[in-house]
Amino acid sequence: MATDIRQVDEKLDDNLLAALPEGGRVVSVTPSGMSDYCSTYRIEVSMPDRTTQVFFEKEGRGQEGLELTQSAFTSESTAYQFIPEHVPRPIARGTYKSRPDVHFFLAEFFEMIEDDIPRPDSYMSAVAALHSRSMGKSPNGKFGFPVNTRFGNLEQDNSWTDTWEEFWTRQMRDFLEREDAAHAGEHHAELERLRPLFFEKVLPRYLRPLESEGRSVTPCLIHADLWPGNVKYKEDGETVCVYDACAMWGHNEVDLGVFRNPRYPLGKPYLKEYWKQVPISEPEEDVDSRNTLYMLRNQILLSTLYPQDPKLREIVVSNMRLLVERVEAEEVEGAQNNAGPMPHAHL
């Protein structure tokens, strides 16, 4: 157990100190980063051998805080199994002895370069390693995760599911219902028109072929929130640190949706770098549409988190419309081809 030697009125909780190195002395605790849903701290510990160890703490309150820290610990621990060179080592999750309504997640602290988005080769080497090393290692061969994880403070239903189409359809229904609830009282006629078509036409068209005609999706561990705020260079400026996952076992291409999102300065160079290392799922000709489909997840969740920004909802509508129109155009073309040439009139 560590001891808190700071000259302050409120020392670190005993259960948190018990998770820190034996014999260590806490010399500083400072805020670390920004979060809308929890408190985060940098904890510096002086060791008996005169070295210093630094830790990251995420703190949440109440039931939401309990679930948030559980999500963080389980996500980061699972990712660390596969890419330990890129993920800060998770150490503990627990509840304060002095305040039973406060919960914590503790991990190693990495110094990172804040304002530098990693190059495509550095960024995607970590993503490709996570997917390749975890491919086929879902604990029960299914899609899902042992706990429901969090995108911001939005719960993600990770109930174990046998097929990818079933899993993704359930999540999209849930996400769109919550997006609608976040915009309560804001009727959007075009979104109401598109929503049933999205489930009746778009999802079967782009998900079902992945698991038909002898094809299958092998679950791998996906991070599910790979925006640039969660991927930074370590101090060496070469190795990237990947953190703040809302993990699940799913189709690897889900993690690529964020790279298409115009909200982030990423784009095609990052996708091309990934495809150098991981093959495109079959049918390959659908990859662009699947990428748009998976991007929608991120956009729907952002529209839910920030309903005061109407542009976010319009982006959801625009991309949903694009996919619906693409499928309907295919249907028209298919009908025309099946009809064959018009017969000649006999005079």
From TrEMBL:
User: What lineage, starting at the top, does this entry show?
Assistant: Eukaryota, Fungi, Dikarya, Ascomycota, Pezizomycotina
Swiss-Prot/TrEMBL catalytic activity? N(6)-D-ribulosyl-L-lysyl-[protein] + ATP = N(6)-(3-O-phospho-D-ribulosyl)-L-lysyl-[protein] + ADP + H(+)
Keywords carried by this UniProt record: Kinase, Transferase
- Enumerate the GO terms in the molecular function aspect: kinase activity; protein-ribulosamine 3-kinase activity
EC assignment:
2.7.1.172
Instruction: State if Ubl conjugation is listed as a keyword.
Output: no
Identify which top EC class this enzyme belongs to. transferase
Q: What is this protein called?
A: protein-ribulosamine 3-kinase
